[in-house]
């Protein structure tokens, strides 16, 4: 008698690794979308250390300067995962760096000089982990467990890390309110990434939840060439001149109506406008996603320029500007893409032009779904970290050259679904190794040194459900056992 696929596995299919699922009629597989295709999805159960109940948090990207390969760096509750996405419809999970101390729902990462810098909140002795990303070039048998290349411990917990790549300074924000900077930013010289050094901090204006720091080249000629810090400080936006770390100058602060929690913001490319998200105003006041635009034409006298309201009541989280677009991780509404070419206008300054919703259950006002987004790969691929569903790789519809990824179609599994066995065949090249993972990321079958163009995989002892089959440590296929 034919077995029925259990509900848990049927549901899991919607969160497991998909590849190149186009956005058709408003959906890419199970995910609502508009003009953005799904290239791949790797779940939390694969990315994270499986101890406890891991979730996803921050995300950033790195491009290898020697070969142009692109990598996703995903912060998890208990670890940081590294994924090769240079073939975006065939990503390779390379391994993870476990937490330096305890678990945290707020683990954040940034990149400078081919190194990742990682902090965690509410973990008293975590400090900052430093990881040399060039080590990812040499991973031959993924996944592996990495160790840090340096561990800076002159602070304990922190909510986020900000880096000015022009100057080689990291700004640790959301440090302990009882620490030396009372929650304000700590300054660290990371010009030598594996030998970070303390450069002081700023404690005069309360807790900095998030920030952006730039070498200023905007319209306010008085401050050109200075290092400018824009802090999202819970109930205000704070602008500091941090050029001289021993003599920080406060330029201005600005509030706005109906403050919930001043969370995070980003400059436009010309450094004229600053786009801000308030994390709890949707819950507190009942309106749809609200995004505020400030005119920073005069850094000493910023003004609120316009307000945008989205199409859903979802909470906005992290947002980043690239050219004439603003990419927001909008929690339960997923990634939202806004056109900001009209940003100087008092009304209709931004317009939604696309989205990819990683949380199809609802667009409600709650803390699930898309945590953050990284839109800065030269390839045009965009990575999203989802709290429950892990890593998503998406791309604007109609822009993927599928011929680049021909190798994905050269390996087949037949039959699939399978009962007693399935034949893995390669049209080009030799099958050297095979690993089979269950939905918890555990290896349930492996075979090395195969050196054949086809291999019969015995499946009789596998329980009913969904599995990932990794061939030659590069290609991943879904296999259903019925």
Automatic annotation (TrEMBL):
Gene Ontology CC: extracellular region
Tell me which positions the record assigns to the signal sequence.
Answer: 1-19
Ordered alphabetically, the record's keywords are:
Signal
Q: Which residues form the Secretion system C-terminal sorting domain?
A: 415-481
Keyword Signal set for record: yes
Keyword check for Oxidoreductase: no
NCBIfam families named in the record: choice_anch_B, Por_Secre_tail
PANTHER family, from UniProt? Answer: REGULATORY P DOMAIN-CONTAINING PROTEIN
In Swiss-Prot or TrEMBL terms, this protein is called: Choice-of-anchor B family protein
